[in-house]
Each structure stands twice: as C-alpha cells, then as structure tokens.
Amino acid sequence: MSRFLPLTIRFVTGGSMVVSSIADAKNALGGAWKNKEAPDYLAAARLVDDAMAGICRPAVAFDAFKKAAARQGLLRGADPSAALSMLDALWSGDGQGPPR
Fold first, then answer.
1. Domain extents in the chain
2. Long-range CB contacts (within 8 A, 24+) of 67-71
C-alpha cells in the first residue's frame, strides 16, 4: 500500500505517471516539467532527496512535490473511484440521502 494518496502528474511532453511515494516523486522530478529552475521545483527536489536520505520527513517532501506540480499545472484531477460513484448514485437516488 502507498504511503500517500496517489497524484497523477501530466508532464509537458504529454506523458503521465501516478505518484504515491517518495521514490515515485523522485522519478517524476526527472520528467519533463515546465520550469526546473522554479523555486518550488528546486525546493521539492531538495526535500525529496533529503527524505530519501532520511533527514526530512516524507510527508514534508511529498507536500512540497505536490505544491511544485500544482504551481506548474502538472496535477491531473483524479476521477472518482467506482465505489464513490456508486455511493453518489445511491445518495442522489431519491434526493433525501441514504436510507435511515
């Protein structure tokens, strides 16, 4: 199981990948970004390296990665899961919410 909720990153070249760990974030940072000199990107790269070395909390590094990807418009919205779609359908079936 992944440590973090998965993020889908769409690179500027059109490719994409799912990122759900620090190792995934490290791989994604090597992909095609809009600006690898942007302060947010550089901070994320440093924090991801630090997390892999054990000198930074992984959650801090992952948040920095997510922020950098969002700032560069690389985050792709996630589609709702099948279970969530079924729950939404049940919820809106009669307009009154779930059965009591």
1. 7-92
2. 67/40, 68/38, 68/40, 68/41, 68/43, 68/44, 69/7, 69/9, 69/28, 69/44, 71/38, 71/40
